[in-house]
């Protein structure tokens, strides 16, 4: 655990220099050296330990979401695990480990009210994977939004991803039959042999539609959607009556696909098969995160839940980490560990 | 009220001769003269009084829905108001008015278990409009699926249609601000001046997007969707946090629109604004239809709910009635009255 109070004179930062118009590239970011911020009343100063790299980071560049759209020329936004280095008279003592949007920088001043103190129990990285946004999205998406029941067939896309690999495992723990969709046979092999997925399908295969049908002989009851687009369309065509689509993420919404035939199944299939599609933001469930953490700690302890983590080292690797995530290169939770 | 027991020797029928591949035309139907059916055990014979003409009739030709896809060469399927003319030893006495899928024909044998006896109170046509599938879809769509609350902004598409004009009025009765979308200025004038809609937008206008925005200055909380397609996409872009889309009908799902940009907002907007899209089939709520009828009878009595009806006369007019409905020519509930 890091507890040394240490505030440097410089603050290494990654700036989102320009907003992407299409594909995001390393050139959209620049490295900068700013000042360690001086907190205003009610703010604390934190030092970043681990940055959580999420597909949502990309979405923030395009549109207003649950936060305003990002602005070019500012420090790249991002949630992470931080240590309080200046309590500034607030109720968060120095040394406290907090989760907050400190951005891609070594030091940040953030409102104490926006920093969530964490009782770290176990691996620090698990706070970003299982106990972070990805794990909580998997937990509440499967148990609450999807309301997965024993015996149901659950399909998870981006199944090797930060959220997907946990969502699939949680659905299995609830007694469902779980089919993963990923973009490489290597990932699929790992999902089946290491994480216990019942079946997998490669969405890059030319026989994807037929493969999915074969993998789901009883149709699909719950689809945990991390991608949208053509895969969403394909899955919707195989869904059962009273099916549920948990809209957790989308990597396709900002790229217009002229081949999309989504309008053929939305809303048609929703109506004829009484399907519910529901988006959710895991931050809305924050009051129940401690409960979910406790449940998942039990599964970690008895070996039923295996988290995959994909750490990068050093702040300058953050743009590369995000690009790798968006390109689908990674399995598990992508994160950036900072060291001084 | 029709109570005379009378079984003719011939049975005038409309046959769905061929399944449409694209636009439905009168040529897909033929008129035929069949035999009056002989009931099997558990079946009753009914005489058709009024046929309910619904957009769903068209959907049944394309895909399996809550019923198997229609088969070419058979009597066109369709729900309607009928009189029992042969009880055949069942618990439905002759003279009972029932609602059932008798098809487009004068006489049908239907399982007694599939015929819903109606306590007709008021106009017989109201059983098809307010108290039929259209009215029930409006009632349960607004009150249950959409859960419309006072002060919310509700948008209804196909607002002059059988379901839409009732959905809008029910939302207003619940205290919402209601904006109708229809395809002609004449319909919109009628919605505002006669049915009390707060505002209306013409989706054929070149300024549709801007008009919708202007008509909904506080965004949109609930969208009662009767059409899908481009209008659904446009409305989704204006929806508020925690918005709900009631997927009631779709006239566009069987025509592939290469211009569709639905994949830009589904699932992206659903996630970022926590939107729930939910399809429903009003037949699932049948146990609560009597309650809804009672509530709506109260609104009819005090003049707060004004049903629009669009009757055609004679069985041979049924194909024309459906084509008119699909072309958006009509306002209110389209139905065919049979007379001998």
UniProtKB/TrEMBL annotation, chains A, B:
<dbReference type="InterPro" id="IPR020843">
    <property type="entry name" value="ER"/>
</dbReference>
<dbReference type="Pfam" id="PF00107">
    <property type="entry name" value="ADH_zinc_N"/>
</dbReference>
<dbReference type="InterPro" id="IPR045010">
    <property type="entry name" value="MDR_fam"/>
</dbReference>
<keyword id="KW-0560">Oxidoreductase</keyword>
<dbReference type="InterPro" id="IPR036291">
    <property type="entry name" value="NAD(P)-bd_dom_sf"/>
</dbReference>
<feature type="domain" description="Enoyl reductase (ER)">
    <location>
        <begin position="22"/>
        <end position="336"/>
    </location>
</feature>
<dbReference type="InterPro" id="IPR011032">
    <property type="entry name" value="GroES-like_sf"/>
</dbReference>
<dbReference type="GO" id="GO:0016491">
    <property type="term" value="F:oxidoreductase activity"/>
</dbReference>
<dbReference type="Pfam" id="PF16884">
    <property type="entry name" value="ADH_N_2"/>
</dbReference>
<protein>
    <submittedName>
        <fullName>NADP-dependent oxidoreductase</fullName>
        <ecNumber>1.-.-.-</ecNumber>
    </submittedName>
</protein>
<dbReference type="InterPro" id="IPR013149">
    <property type="entry name" value="ADH-like_C"/>
</dbReference>
<dbReference type="InterPro" id="IPR041694">
    <property type="entry name" value="ADH_N_2"/>
</dbReference>
């Amino acid at each position: 655990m890091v507890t040394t109070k240490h505030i440097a004179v410089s603050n290494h930062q990654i700036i989102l220099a320009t907003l992407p118009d299409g594909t995001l590239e390393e050139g959209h970011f620049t490295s900068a050296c700013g000042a360690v911020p001086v907190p205003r009343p009610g703010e604390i100063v934190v030092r970043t330990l681990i940055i959580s790299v999420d597909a949502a980071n990309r979405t923030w560049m395009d549109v207003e979401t649950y936060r305003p759209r990002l602005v070019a020329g500012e420090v790249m936004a991002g949630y992470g695990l931080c240590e309080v280095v200046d309590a500034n008279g607030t109720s968060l003592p120095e040394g406290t480990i907090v989760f907050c949007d400190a951005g891609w920088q070594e030091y940040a001043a953030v409102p104490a009210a926006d920093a969530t103190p964490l009782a770290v129990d176990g691996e620090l990285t698990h706070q970003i994977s299982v106990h972070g946004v990805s794990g909580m999205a998997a937990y509440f998406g499967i148990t609450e939004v999807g309301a997965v029941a024993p015996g149901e067939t659950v399909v998870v896309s981006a199944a090797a991803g930060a959220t997907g690999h946990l969502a699939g495992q949680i659905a299995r723990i609830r007694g469902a039959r779980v089919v993963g969709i990923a973009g490489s046979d290597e990932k699929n092999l790992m999902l089946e042999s290491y994480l216990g997925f019942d079946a997998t399908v490669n969405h890059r295969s030319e026989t994807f539609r037929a493969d999915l049908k074969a993998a789901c002989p009883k149709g699909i009851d719950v689809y945990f959607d991390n991608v949208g687009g053509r895969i969403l369309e394909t899955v919707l065509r195989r869904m059962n009556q009273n099916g549920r689509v948990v809209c957790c993420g989308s990597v396709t919404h900002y790229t217009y696909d002229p081949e999309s035939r989504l309008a053929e199944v939305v809303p048609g299939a929703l109506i004829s098969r009484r399907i519910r599609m529901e988006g959710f933001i895991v931050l809305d469930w924050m009051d129940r995160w401690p409960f979910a953490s406790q449940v998942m700690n039990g599964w970690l302890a008895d070996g039923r839940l295996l988290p995959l983590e994909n750490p990068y080292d050093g702040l300058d690797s953050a743009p590369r980490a995000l690009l790798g995530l968006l390109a689908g290169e990674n399995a598990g939770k992508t994160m950036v560990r900072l060291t001084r």
